[in-house]
Amino acid sequence: MSRLFTTASLTSGVALGLLAQAGAAHASSNMPQMDFSNPLNGSQVVWLVIILVVLYLILSRWALPGVGAVLATRSQRIQRDLDAAHAAKVEADAAVAELHAAIKSARDEANAEVARATEAAKAAAAEQAAALSARLDVQLEKAEAEIAAARHQALTAIRPIARETAALLMTRLTGQALDEAQLNQGIHDALAARGLA
Amino acid sequence: MAGPSIDALGQFRLTTGLGPIGHAVNFTNSNEMMLLSVGLIIVAFGLTLRTRALVPGRMQSLVETLYEFVHGMCVDTIGEEGRKFFPLVFTLFIFILLGNLLGLFPYFFAYTSGIVVTLAMAMFVFLFSTAVGFYIHGFKFLKFFVPAGVPGWMLPMLVPIEIISYLSRPVSLSVRLFANMTAGHVMLEVFAGFMILLTASLGVFGVVASIIPLGLNIALMGLELLVACLQAYVFAILTCLYLHDAVHMH
């Protein structure tokens, strides 16, 4: 640690001493750039002018226009590519719109077709149903008429059977014939009580 | 003074370059570096313009970035008229930028650290922008020194101030660049010289202690890279501003 300190202090001491020495050297010697008595100081400006003029001519006539042309070509190329991409995008958008329109019209057409078919089917079904119900009505009427006829027949047949049966029963039970009018009245009452008179 | 000493200013000493021919025409070591800069610029642009790739490589990207950076700076600062001045601003910018950056290499002469070089460029910018002002506006350009919306009794005070500030433009423009580059190179050389002196005078301890100036120099090199780019940018943007003043007078 102490050795490091010694080294550091020695270094800074020497550095300070050298700085002073260098400062003294500066003070004693003038800057070469300011030594205008040196003919080279003037002659370098003459050559500077010649070199700069040549450099200007090279740059302005050949180098800079060339690079400018390269840059212009590139920007034109980029612009052209951008334009092409833009046109392609517009085209693609149009195609997509066309596709959408086609899909929409096809769907509409299909929907109309389905609606038409449904209507036709409904109409046919309704027609069939009407025909069927008309036939059924006719059959029903016929059946009802038959039933009514059968019922009438049955009802007209039941009275003599009842009278003969009742007369036979009374004869067997009492051994004498029953008054015809009384028998008819009783049968009529019985039938009326059952709602068959 | 015994032993080695730090000659921090020797790096700025001009000598003649390119052998006896250069010696005969006083072609200096700073001019050699200028030629190197111009050569590098030509090579960079040559590579770019030889391929002219649609998707640029590294060198082409660098050149295009510099082009668009300076072009944007001209158009943003001067306006649409800036396109005319773009080659000029680009020439100054790339010349100063390469001078600053190449100067950071050891043994390379930093020509932007010479006051006569920076003053010559600054004087050119000053004279050129003034000429542009008079060319566009004629003698109305003198109204530039009369601030608008100022009460008349203040003008005798303000007009001289405006003129002095205008005339000081080339001085500040040149001294800013020269002083930044000179100070940076002096500091780099002083710290590097410390390392040599420490090693020479303290032996092993000196070698260990040299780590301090070495670390400082590494940090300083990063700072100098920033300064090199920043000062080239400052010179170019101020050139644009002066041209804007000349074109638009406000």
Automatic annotation (TrEMBL), chain A:
InterPro entries: ATP_synth_b/b'su_bac/chlpt, ATP_synthase_B_chain. The keyword Transcription regulation does not apply. GO terms for molecular function: proton-transporting ATP synthase activity, rotational mechanism; proton-transporting ATPase activity, rotational mechanism. It is a single-pass membrane protein. It comes from the Bacteria. Residues 107-153 form a coiled coil. The chain crosses the membrane at residues 46-72. It is found in: Cell membrane; Endomembrane system. Its main location: membrane. Keywords: ATP synthesis, Cell membrane, CF(0), Coiled coil, Hydrogen ion transport, Ion transport, Membrane, Signal, Transmembrane, Transmembrane helix, Transport. One of its GO terms (cellular component) is proton-transporting ATP synthase complex. The keyword Signal applies. Residues 1-27 form the signal peptide. It holds the Pfam family ATP-synt_B. F-type ATPases have 2 components, F(1) - the catalytic core - and F(0) - the membrane proton channel. F(1) has five subunits: alpha(3), beta(3), gamma(1), delta(1), epsilon(1). F(0) has three main subunits: a(1), b(2) and c(10-14). The alpha and beta chains form an alternating ring which encloses part of the gamma chain. F(1) is attached to F(0) by a central stalk formed by the gamma and epsilon chains, while a peripheral stalk is formed by the delta and b chains. F(1)F(0) ATP synthase produces ATP from ADP in the presence of a proton or sodium gradient. F-type ATPases consist of two structural domains, F(1) containing the extramembraneous catalytic core and F(0) containing the membrane proton channel, linked together by a central stalk and a peripheral stalk. During catalysis, ATP synthesis in the catalytic domain of F(1) is coupled via a rotary mechanism of the central stalk subunits to proton translocation. Belongs to the ATPase B chain family. This is ATP synthase subunit b. The gene is atpF.
Automatic annotation (TrEMBL), chain B:
It is a multi-pass membrane protein. Belongs to the ATPase A chain family. This is ATP synthase subunit a. PANTHER family: ATP SYNTHASE SUBUNIT A. GO terms for cellular component: plasma membrane; proton-transporting ATP synthase complex. The chain crosses the membrane at residues 33-49, 85-109, 115-137, 144-167, 187-216, 223-244. The lineage of its organism: Bacteria, Pseudomonadati, Pseudomonadota, Alphaproteobacteria, Acetobacterales. Key component of the proton channel; it plays a direct role in the translocation of protons across the membrane. The keyword Transport applies. It is found in: Cell membrane; Membrane. Keywords: ATP synthesis, Cell membrane, CF(0), Hydrogen ion transport, Ion transport, Membrane, Transmembrane, Transmembrane helix, Transport. GO terms for molecular function: proton-transporting ATP synthase activity, rotational mechanism.
